[in-house]
Amino acid sequence: MAGSTRERVVVLTVAVVTVVLLGPALAPGYTLLGDQVFVPDPSLLPWMLGLGAGLPRSVPQDAVIALLTGPVPGWVWEKFALVAALALLGLGVARLLRGQGARAAIVGAVVAMWSPYVGERLLIGHWSLLLALAVLPWALVHADGARLGSTGALARWVLVVALASLTVTGGLLLVLVTAPVLLWPGGLSRRLRLLGLAAALALQLPWAVPALVHPGSSTTGGADVFALRPEGLGGALLSALGTGGLWNADSVPGSRSTLLAPMVTLSLLGLAWAGRRRTAQALGSPVTTMLVVASVVGLAVALCGAWSVTSGLTRWWVENAPGGGLLRDGQKWLAPWLLLLAVSSALGSARLSRAAARRTGDAAVGMLLVVAAVALPVLGTPDLVWGATGRLATVQYPPDWADARRVLATDPSPGDVISLPWSAYRRFGWNLDRPVLDPAPRAMPRTVVVSDALVVRRGDALVVIPGDDPRAAAIGAAVAGGSGADLAATLRVQGIGWALVAQSGTPVILPAGATRVMSGPDLELYRLTAPAPAPVVSGVAAVLAADAVALSVVVSAAVILLVLRRRRRTRTE
């Protein structure tokens, strides 16, 4: 009974923190912020499978969301993703701390959830990365369980890796950090563990195969722009140790520049040092070793790009090494360090709490120290409260979006769509003027070509990071040329038959011969002259085969778990 009560207290704490952090984002509607773009009823389009001209950056997450959305509106899945990301993270850290008492579990959950890493990724809209972070502790638990021969643990590990593999970084993160735990000497046969590893690698095929066969340029720049950014006093080192340092200053809470932020970081580091020995005992050697190694590597990657002495090495790697672009955003690789910091600081606070209670003979003193440890992360970033003080508020898409979608779905005129003004991000008045990735590619039933170049402000200068889609590059050059006739000719060659124009106040040069077929206060839709067939994308069969393999892995793991559960029930009856 006591154990059950402790678990309820931990679950209640995680639930409360989740609600307080998300706040207005839990209301019906869409939180359109940064890269977080859910739409009412997306269509499954080729680019969502990696069959586009650019790199498969959002494969397979957009395809999965498109398949799930329909009778259930997109905003419901958005809420599910956000709540799952926070709740699974808190409960996962608590699971790593099983047997260490409710106090340690609560402190660890709050330190992980109310962290600069989570807050900054929420504000930039990286929901799938947060989901991968959230299942990382569960992957460690199941990998260790499978190593020891726990029934069903291997199948659960594969399914957790599948969830993280919605995004490229997430899948790689879980495989790199947890696969060595799985392969650590243990009771399960090595053949079965290698089979599990092969399944986890197969789950990366949906993005790996398109990355190898698509015709887009893989040249990647922007290493300096995306490097970890120092936040306030303490520079890059304390920012990284505090799990902050996101490259986008607009997505960083203002409290990160105060004196309190580095003080909280140092306090958490002190608690972690106090709990370092207990961490190895609580997690076991394989999990502890991999968390420490991954944390050191993650911190090195993040700091290497941030320090002027080593930034050249990072720049060279990003621009020349195959797949080097994955290291461009160095701060995201602090995920293992966040887990290690949360677990160690929780165990350190529990140790100091017990010691204080023994010395004073007053249990209340020990409890006071635990309360202080829980309050530390909140004091460090108080402006994360209630959806970052309202920044995560929800909105509804104006009717124009549904009208444009209806026309494009029913009109027989051929061609893909260009989205204007030519910019990757938008600031809509109906979206509270928050910057958001153009929703048109996900909201429209045809392939929409948008600018994939990213414009980032660095001080007083604007830095343009070129994209990797040759089709978008050709259209962008024509748009910049300022001639409606030249733009029309380029769009015709690129297979563009429609232009979707957002009423944003930004001047737009329309292609010659454009005919308006829909007009509203927010969007206009134009039919263009008959286009040439869209460029043929290579590797369709290989991409579809990769998707089929990954899907078969997920289904097989789920079936294995169901069979094992049925056998267990049969034995107990």
Strands of the widest sheet, in order across it, are 4-1-7-9-8
Please, what is the average pLDDT? Answer: 93
Strands, total number: 9
Could you tell me the strand content as a percent range?
A: 5-15%
Distance between the termini: 24 Å
Shape: globular
Rg result = 25 Å
Largest β sheet strand count, sense and barrel closure: 5 strands, mixed
Structural class: alpha/beta
Provide the helix percentage. Answer: 55-70%
Q: If helices are DSSP runs of H or I spanning 4 or more residues, what is the number of helices? A: 23
How would you explain this protein's 3D organization?
With 573 residues, the protein is an alpha/beta fold. Helix content is 58%, strand content 7%. A five-stranded mixed beta sheet has the order 4-1-7-9-8. A two-stranded antiparallel sheet has the order 2-3. A two-stranded antiparallel ribbon has the order 5-6. A hairpin with a 7-residue loop joins strand 2 (425-427) and strand 3. The longest helix is centred in the last third of the chain and has 33 residues, at 540-572. The mean pLDDT is 93.
Sum this structure up briefly.
With 573 residues, this protein is of the alpha/beta class.
Tag the structure with descriptive keywords.
five-stranded mixed β-sheet; 573 residues; alpha/beta; 9 strands; two-stranded antiparallel ribbon; 23 helices
